[in-house]
Design goal:
Elements lengths: L1 H28 L3 H17 L3 H14 L5 H12 L3 H14 L4 H22 L3 H22 L8 H19 L3 H8 L19
Helix pairs in contact: 2-3, 3-4, 4-5, 4-6, 5-6
């Protein structure tokens, strides 16, 4: 009985060692997400450099599927689609990012610029279609209103006369700064007050 008890004890200890080894091996084979994403980024960079966008997206999609709560693979997909000028898919990927992190500024930027480029392209194509032009007018008006509010401009694209006047005003101001003696006589020589102020800048400079 003593020999059987000792054998049972040894067997149980041996079994525990085997199970512990299996658990350790399994945990070592499973990479943490930052390491996995880093390796995926390197692979994606290599594939994109070779022009294999579809395969690169497949790598990211696989990472996203295995880590459904993480935004990083979707963000990388959004950037890849945007760089390839595939704005529709860039919008979809950016929306996936914002569903996981509503404060992500990069995703918001990609979503906004992609949307503007899609809208611009679509409205340009519709301009020549008289039947569809009326249907698109209300959306175009809404887009123009949003752009004016964003750019803080009353007019999105200044007229040629207004732009020329702004240039003359800027040139006159530069001459006055270069020759202080002209400051006193400048109002007499040009009684029309300068206009434009802050609106003299390029209204689309914030989008460059």
């Amino acid at each position: 009985m003593l020999g059987l008890g000792r054998f049972t004890t040894v067997f149980l200890v041996f079994l525990c060692i085997i199970l512990s080894g299996c658990t350790t091996t399994g945990s070592n084979n499973k990479l943490d997400f930052p390491t996995l994403m880093e390796q995926s980024d390197l692979k994606v960079d290599s594939l994109l450099a070779k022009g294999n966008q579809e395969e690169a997206i497949g790598v990211l999609a696989d990472v996203a599927k295995k880590n459904p709560t993480r935004k990083e693979p979707w963000l990388r997909m959004a950037k890849a689609y945007f760089d390839a000028e595939n704005y529709g898919q860039a919008i979809v990927a950016s929306d996936e990012v914002l569903q996981r992190d509503s404060t992500d500024r990069t995703a918001k930027s990609i979503l906004a610029v992609s949307g503007l480029r899609v809208a611009t392209r679509s409205l340009t194509e519709l301009r020549a279609d008289a039947e569809l032009r009326g249907n698109a007018r209300s959306d175009a008006v809404s887009l123009a209103k949003a752009l004016r509010e964003t750019l803080q401009e009353d007019v999105l694209v200044p007229s040629a006369d207004l732009e020329a006047k702004r240039k003359r005003d800027a040139a006159a101001k530069a001459r006055m700064l270069a020759n202080p003696r002209q400051k006193a006589v400048a109002p007499v020589a040009n009684p029309t007050p300068a206009s434009g102020g802050a609106s003299g800048s390029d209204p689309f400079s914030v989008l460059k």
